[in-house]
Amino acid sequence: MSEEREIVIRQQEKFEFYLVALVFTLLALSIQTSTFASPIFSQFFELAGWFCLLLSGLSGLSYLEWLPAIRMHEVKKEELQVTADKLKHKKEQGVEKVHVLQDENIVPIDTRITEYEEVIGKLKEKDSTLDRKSIVKYFIFKWFFVGGVIFVILSRAHEPVTNIINYICN
Prior knowledge:
mainly alpha; 2 strands
């Protein structure tokens, strides 16, 4: 993996960890500072904000939990592809058979290349499933965070907005 790619991955991971911590911090803070003496719609927005922040935080944790597995899956696929490419290169050089360490057998190189390509194909199929789940988790994480913040702001904005309107009208 290139050095630039590693830097980008580390920066992205730091951001994701920070955001998950921020979500739970805002959830805890909004719960600690809440008052339910306000109008019913403010109470609804407050609870909706809590729900969104909680769902965002849990989704973010799940996303972070699966990131290492997804990355290991990608590394395994890349390693298999490198090995398959090496076998193809050997085939071009005239090698017809290879020794398989796991089975202690000598097999035709075409058979071994086919085996690698089949495994790589299965991993690529699994990639799409893992990617789709990861995208959904990140979508929930990000947009429920935004929704939670907006709902909490709306729940807390009733009194200041009312005071401003009363001040302007008088």
